[in-house]
Design a protein that fits this description.
TIM Barrel; 3-stranded antiparallel β-sheet; alpha/beta; 2 domains; 8-stranded parallel barrel; 47% helix
């Protein structure tokens, strides 16, 4: 039999062996990372807090960098755009001469020096009123250098002055008034154009014309820069006798108030027949007769007609012309355009190019996809407008 003493010794030995095994297992687990002790969790928690704190420092720094990068961009962009626009257009500015009068075939200043007006005609302000705005007129003076703008107001076509009611009349007169003020503020001449076309004969609305010009001349009596064009393009069966009869009733309305104003009178066949005028001209001072041409259609014969009339003593003002076909379309005929420019320069003929608008046709000076009203660049304008600017720069 085993004694009690031996059993006790055996029990103690088993306890020691068990403690050694358990201690060895935990020891191995501790060094291999297999066991996580409570004190390890307490130690690791501060390390996680330090990691999450780092992005907060980055978020504070990022806005500071963005603000520093943004400010110089906002300052530089407008300066670059303005310099580009100035470089693309002319910095030439044609002269303003004060009060003008007609002497022989020429426009002259108060000292008798010959002068030439060169500029543009708007399209009908019934369609495109914004291109007669003060903003546009100032821009054309500053960057194209023109010294005259013709304000074309249709009489019977599309919301014409004579066909669309009193409210429309007042609206058109307001557009004209703003344009005259803008031209005056920018040392330019301005032509108020009674733009007959599909009404053919100026006598059709003679009563309205007398009333209109009577109102205009009283409003602008003190303006030395306003020119009155009393009928745009008589056409159809209209003769010079018809036009002459109309003119002898309208001109006195202007002369009774302003004896010095320049008055332009249209001629038969869309302002192209000067021969009939030479046979029986009007008996008034400071009168000029209009001649219109389009270089894509009218060539040497028409140039010869113009020069012959001027050489015979007829004072002529080319109040409308283009470098494309007479219907307002087709490619610019540059060679014919240059010949016309040479003739106008040689004979000292004043002129206005048709037309300032973005209408989708070749004669429009502004491209159809351009909606700007000022600060035009080369990309915004037609080839005809570019050639006009080149001509002015000479």
């Amino acid at each position: 039999m085993v004694s009690k003493k031996q059993r006790f010794r055996t029990f103690i030995l088993v306890l020691i062996l068990a403690a050694a095994v358990v201690g060895g297992v935990f020891g191995v687990s501790y060094y291999t990372g297999g066991v996580t002790f409570p004190w390890q969790v307490a130690v690791n928690e501060p390390e996680q807090e330090e990691v999450t704190a780092e992005p907060e420092i980055e978020k504070v720094e990022e806005p500071e960098v963005k603000v520093e990068n943004k400010e110089p961009v906002q300052v530089e962009e407008p300066e670059i755009e303005e310099e580009t626009e100035v470089e693309l257009l002319s910095d030439t500015k044609l002269d303003y001469y004060g009060q003008l009068h007609v002497e022989d075939t020429k426009l002259v200043d108060k000292d008798g020096n010959e002068v030439v007006l060169t500029g543009i005609s708007t399209h009908g302000i019934n369609w495109y009123p914004d291109y007669a705005s003060p903003e546009t007129i100032k821009s054309l003076r500053d960057s194209w250098g023109i010294n005259v703008v013709r304000i074309a107001m249709y009489t019977s076509d599309y919301n014409g002055y004579c066909v669309a009611g009193d409210e429309n009349k007042e609206n058109l007169k307001k557009i004209i008034d703003d344009a005259v003020k803008a031209a005056t503020d920018n040392d330019m001449y301005v032509i108020i154009d009674w733009h007959i076309l599909n009404d053919n004969n100026p006598n059709t609305y003679k009563g309205e014309a007398i009333q209109f010009f009577g109102e205009m001349v009283r409003k602008y009596e003190s303006n030395e820069n306003v020119i009155y064009e009393i009928c745009n393009e008589p056409n159809g069966d209209t003769t010079w006798d018809d036009i002459r009869a109309y003119a002898t009733e309208v001109i006195p309305v202007i002369r009774n108030v302003d004896k010095d104003a320049i008055i332009l009178v249209g001629t038969p066949k869309w302002s192209s027949d000067l021969d009939s005028v030479l046979a029986n001209p009007l008996d008034y001072d400071n009168i000029m007769y209009t001649y219109h041409f389009y270089a894509g259609t009218h060539k040497s014969r028409e140039r010869n007609n113009l020069t012959a009339a001027v050489e015979d003593g007829l004072p002529v003002f080319v109040s409308e012309y283009g470098f494309v076909a007479a219907d307002g379309n087709g490619m610019m005929n540059k060679s014919e355009a240059e010949k016309w420019q040479d003739v106008m320069e040689e004979y000292g003929i004043s002129s206005c190019m048709w037309n300032l608008s973005n209408k989708d046709e070749s004669s429009a000076m502004i491209k159809a996809d351009c909606n700007k009203l000022a600060d035009f660049t080369e990309e915004d304008i037609s080839d005809s407008a570019k050639l006009l600017i080149e001509y002015i720069e000479k």
